[in-house]
Design a protein that fits this description.
Length: about 290
């Protein structure tokens, strides 16, 4: 009776599997799908479609004074770059922009460092951002002219205003979102003051800081072009803004659109090659952003 209830014991065996590397690897996705997954290609297609729509709208309008064709604008852009005129205008604009942008970034970092360190710093940041963040930077241009005169100082002043407040708000919001466990770890290691901010808060809040840097760049770039229109009319010199203003007065609409197109292209280049590369090397590599 007991032997009939005992289950039979099956012999052990082992199946040897071929290494995966020796098997042929099949391509799951076709070439067209993999090619379309490239971001630069999709953006290029969007730009090409916009250029075609621009060309069709201009030909339907049939008035070069109001809307030049895309081909005429591209020709004016190439001629301006080949003659060196547009290159010099871009150099002037970017030189002023970098001064104001860097100064605004340094001031924003100092203000947020003070805000996360002391209560008076938090009150100061809240008060100043509530007062000055809603104020358009270009509205300060008349005051800048009185204080600094017709020169680079006035431009740098309005650029600092356009960069400082959005960057400070984003950075402070990023600092506030740092997990308490990281904060406690930093304090346990004896980090205080600037070392605590640089080694704990800045790496953890880097996605918000990069977002603030991009917003500050966009605000500064458009503020500079608008301010150069006024400075061009006042002092007879300037960068891309003055180039656009001067050609508008002379009714060279194709050159006006060429200047505007160059403003857009510079913005795309900074976003695609500057900030995108920085994000890829930092927050995406560290797994902080998708």
């Amino acid at each position: 009776m007991s032997s009939s209830l005992t289950p039979p014991i099956r012999p052990e065996y082992e199946n040897r599997l071929e290494p995966f590397t020796e098997l042929p690897v099949e391509r799951v996705l076709p070439f067209g799908t993999r090619l379309w997954s490239q971001g630069w290609l999709r953006k290029g297609v969007i730009l090409a479609v916009l250029a075609v729509l621009w060309e069709l709208a201009a030909r339907w309008q049939d008035n070069d004074l109001l809307l030049p064709t895309f081909i005429a604008t591209a020709r004016a852009l190439v001629e301006g770059l080949a003659s060196g005129e547009l290159v010099e205008k871009v150099r002037i604009s970017l030189a002023v922009l970098l001064q104001g942008y860097i100064a605004g970034v340094l001031l924003a970092f100092g203000l947020t460092t003070l805000a996360v360190s002391t209560q008076i710093g938090r009150d100061l940041l809240d008060t100043l951002t509530s007062m000055f963040n809603p104020l358009p930077a270009i509205a300060l241009l008349p005051l800048a002219l009185l204080w600094f005169g017709l020169g680079r100082g006035s431009l740098v002043f309005v650029l600092i205003h356009s960069v400082l407040w959005p960057l400070a708000l984003n950075t402070y919001a990023g600092f506030q979102g740092v997990p308490e466990t990281l904060r406690m770890a930093g304090r346990n290691y004896g980090l205080r003051g600037l070392r605590y901010v640089l080694q704990i808060l800045v790496p953890a809040a880097l996605p918000a800081i990069l977002s603030g840097l991009k917003i500050g760049w966009a605000f500064a770039w458009r503020t500079l072009i608008a301010a150069e229109l006024v400075f061009g009319a006042s002092s007879g010199k300037g960068g891309l803004g003055w180039y656009i203003f001067q050609n508008r007065n002379e009714l060279y609409t194709d050159r006006v659109f060429a200047g505007l197109a160059l403003v857009v292209l510079i913005g795309l280049a900074v976003e695609s090659f500057g900030f995108a590369t920085l994000e890829r090397l930092t927050v995406r590599k560290w797994g902080q952003q998708r």
